[in-house]
């Protein structure tokens, strides 16, 4: 049975980006906020690291921006980075107004404590509750949303968008090679424009799946997607179970452009066996990474050693693991002492001890895990997508702000900054007073990366597998395939193998939550593989061992983790 509902702005997702967007939009419009799980069951709530911002008089937004560009391998969009770093302090101030109690250096009234994390040139990371920053932000924003004139639907999943003028043919955004692009310019993309008339269509709402299996059609003037990431593409991830790439997959099926899906960040330090994140702040406070013989290996890799950009550290760990037969490396935090570890990192301290480990007295085993998607739904600086009526913000969006690799603690900041912008623009659009737009992030190019490169992988819109023989598969099969062939270290041969396997799988009908998530994961897996195949060179988190510009690597590296 299908019910219907009307609103001005439909916001899908309840992390920092979704909640911020809903709060902003509710100032001028009726808002319906939808969450796939409980309102606080988000990646934001799990974030141990802090939120970056140039708050100190000795710091500056320009220096924060410079660090962001370096971490992003020179491929960040300059305007997006400027907006992030200049508006970040004000958004942090709003979080404080919402009740987020960031840690202070020496008790009430003292300056905020600012930590140092990888690739930052100076301490500028705010934390709350030591390593519970995300939980503090989530709780404060949930409280604010429940007090605001916002209608809330929990345990309600997104199936598809309602698009005026019927079905559309999905488009794929494919990157060019890094050597095509001077540092500091938008990432290049190539798109199939055949038979597509995006301007003639408009998003008019969405079809949702309730917990009881019933469907709900929401008719809205504007839809904002803030559904988070897609870590569940991989067998090893720090992401929650809800991170199945719903927003990007649904937007693609509706005809919106995606960009930069090949850039997947693998966090260097997840507790081996559990995927539990060990925050970068631990290394910022002095913890060291060692091989199984107790030797440090990062000083020989990068001058910043343990505080190098995440892609550098994660690859170094993968190579070290390969050299020692795939066994994990060790995170040594013993120099910090038991009292400091318990005070600064209470969540991690409890989790490690629950796993039977005492990280105060000895090193703990860690491995990389899929952590963050730099790519997603292509937007402008106001969150507008290529499809009128559709906005996106947060991890499911691609503003180009992270380039090829995200700077530590910029993700919560991105959600706050661009969630506010998308919410304000969506509210204005719903009221018929559109804000001035900007160009979509990324530069369209034509060249060797053509639509034919992916045409064989999708013989039906949405990658549903029509007219092809189907092989039975499970989500675990997909996750293992993606980890093995589309993980930290890639080759064209591996990627082609992944594409061939994925081409034999068909998506299930979205009749249950599990089925619709599997459909989204399959679509997004195919798109990610296509993007990774198209970018033959290495950049940031996308590392091709067969990149002709890199020294030859051993095949052993491919199975390091």
From TrEMBL:
Keywords: FAD, Flavoprotein, Oxidoreductase, Pyridine nucleotide biosynthesis
EC number: 1.4.3.16
The protein's name: L-aspartate oxidase
Recorded metabolic or biological pathway in which this protein acts: Cofactor biosynthesis; NAD(+) biosynthesis; iminoaspartate from L-aspartate (oxidase route): step 1/1
Domain of life of the organism encoding this protein: Bacteria
Keyword Repressor assigned: no
GO cellular component: cytoplasm
Localisation: Cytoplasm
Residues of the FAD-dependent oxidoreductase 2 FAD-binding domain: 8-412
Molecular function as annotated in GO: L-aspartate oxidase activity; steroid dehydrogenase activity, acting on the CH-CH group of donors
Residue segments, region Disordered: 174-196
One biological process term in Gene Ontology: 'de novo' NAD+ biosynthetic process from L-aspartate
Pfam families given in the database record: FAD_binding_2, Succ_DH_flav_C
Residue ranges annotated for the Fumarate reductase/succinate dehydrogenase flavoprotein-like C-terminal domain, each copy included: 475-548
PANTHER family: L-ASPARTATE OXIDASE, L-ASPARTATE OXIDASE, CHLOROPLASTIC
Predominant cellular place of this UniProt entry's protein: cytoplasm
Origin species: Brachybacterium endophyticum
Family membership: Belongs to the FAD-dependent oxidoreductase 2 family. NadB subfamily.
Record's catalysed reaction(s): L-aspartate + O2 = iminosuccinate + H2O2
General function of this protein: Catalyzes the oxidation of L-aspartate to iminoaspartate, the first step in the de novo biosynthesis of NAD(+).
Cofactor(s), names only, from the UniProt record: FAD
